[in-house]
Amino acid sequence: MTAPGLRRRRAGLSVRLRLTLSYAGFLVLAGSALFAALLLVLRYVPDENLTVQDGGGFAPSRSDLLDVALPLSGAALGFLALVGLVGGWILAGRMLRPLDRISAAAALAADGSLAHRIDLEGPDDELRRLADTFDMMLARLEHAFAEQRRFAANASHELRTPNTVIKALLEVARADPEGRDVDRLLSRLQETNDRSIVMVESLLQLARLDHEGLRSEPVDLAGVVREAVATSSDLEVTGAPELVVALEEAEVQGDAVLLGQLAGNLLGNAARHNLASGGRVWVRTGLDGRRRPTLVVENTGAPLDPAVVGTLAEPFVRADARTRRPDRAAGSGLGLSIVASIARAHDAELLLTPRPDGGLVATVHFPCQTSGSPA
Q1: Maximum CA pair distance of the chain?
Q2: Mean pLDDT for the chain?
Q3: How many domains does the chain have?
Q4: Angle subtended at Cα 281 by Cα 280 and Cα 282, rounded to the nearest 5 degrees
Q5: CA angle 274, 275, 277 (to 5 degrees)
Q6: Could you tell me if 86 and 196 lie in one domain?
Q7: Which of 22, 151, 175, 343 fits 348 for a cystine, CB–CB 3.0-4.6 Å?
Q8: For 133-154, what is each residue's pLDDT tens digit?
């Protein structure tokens, strides 16, 4: 049965059989060359009977030598062909055995099993590198499919929740027409609907980041962060944490709009999860010790478990609700996931670490620029 998308091909010889025929043909060709050289030498032998003066012995002529050489050469060529076929079949099987393992692993992967690995032993040759590359591809596919399944399950759950809330609110209001508070009902419906809209837009943005090309141009990281600070709504509400800004020039290659969203999401996350009275948010840009453009957003807040911090950049993972300010609505759970996707698109490194006194430190290291970049 032909797989979908693959055209039907005529049956052909196997690689092992072709290699066997090639080995045998090479041996026969080499033997024929030796026989041709022998015939070339025999041309210089006179075609007449010669006698040796001392002892009267018989010296064979060219015809006598050919009568002996031709049958022996034919037998020798047949023997070489047989050796070539048998030895070539064995050698080809031994050389192609790793390809059989790779083919078996590919067949398992085609059936949906991505946990199998070839683990080819032996020297570092072309087949070993092919097997290692295939194992690496299987590992990445397995990780990607696991993330996709987890993302789909989380997305289904998160999108089902607001719909369930809306349904419950409407059923309660319909069951008690006299006692329902229309204004409160409309407020709750709008709040739930707004959350659904934010979540869907975030999901669409994640999908675009994964499939669209990145527009790359020189961008002043300090300018992008300065604009994000000026337009951040989370830092303008009453009771927002104190903002400490230290922006030094740092040029990166990338998309200014996406970099602005990266900075805005980090600022919003720092403001929402800042329980401390008189809390602070520190924002810094500049070059680190390795001359990499760097953005650091640090905030006070409740102590965080390092194990939890390591998962915050995954979709729909949220810190404990106790770390969120009571006057802030719950986010979509995709803010730091979008930050991580934008960082990956810019070949940047996102590091999330808990502060010893509580809170979070988010650091984004961008690739080093050329010597013409601002120092």
Answers
A1: 142
A2: 76
A3: 3
A4: 120
A5: 110
A6: no
A7: 343
A8: 888 888 888 877 876 776 666 5
